[in-house]
Amino acid sequence: MPGEHAWEIPELEDIINEPNHYHKNGIDVIGFSEMQFPKEELKGFYRINVIKYATRYDRKNGTEDLEKAVFYLRKLIELSQEEKDGEEKSYLAEKVE
């Protein structure tokens, strides 16, 4: 647990998954985007961010950028899995009818 020992510095924010600048005025930009944009646009957004962070890590923020790339890759995988599950459910519903 961060801050358990006097020499440890507690983590002030999760700069990868929930950076403070994405929550201004109580609005989560990524969550808002997920509610407002079609899945195809979200997939493109996630893919672009994976590429952006993975290709700049050695010039800009190092491991932090790699963690951001992983974050967006997980979002893309999650969205792709939801689509796959939806297609399977749709296929099964057709088979039942």
Morphology: globular
Rg of Cα set: 18 Å
Number of helices: 3
Main beta sheet strand tally, sense and closure: none
Task: Please give the alpha-carbon distance between the first and last residues.
Answer: 53 Å
**How many β-strand runs?**
0
- Please indicate the percent range of residues in DSSP E strands (runs of 2 or more): under 5%
Secondary-structure element order, N to C = HHH
How much is the average pLDDT? 79
Helix-and-strand structural type: mainly alpha
* Helix content bin: 55-70%
The poorly predicted ranges are: none
InterPro entries: SaV-like
Protein name: DUF3310 domain-containing protein
Summarize the model shown.
This is DUF3310 domain-containing protein. The chain has 97 residues and is mainly alpha-helical.
Structure description:
This protein is mainly α. It has a domain at 38-96. 62% of the residues lie in helices and 0% in strands. The protein has 3 helices and no strands. Helix 2 (39-56) runs antiparallel to helix 3 (63-96). It is globular. The model has no long low-confidence stretch (mean pLDDT 79).
Chain-wise SSE layout:
Blueprint: H1 29-36, H2 39-56, H3 63-96
Helix pairs in contact: 2-3
InterPro entries: SaV-like (IPR021739)
Protein name: DUF3310 domain-containing protein
Pfam families: DUF3310 (PF11753)
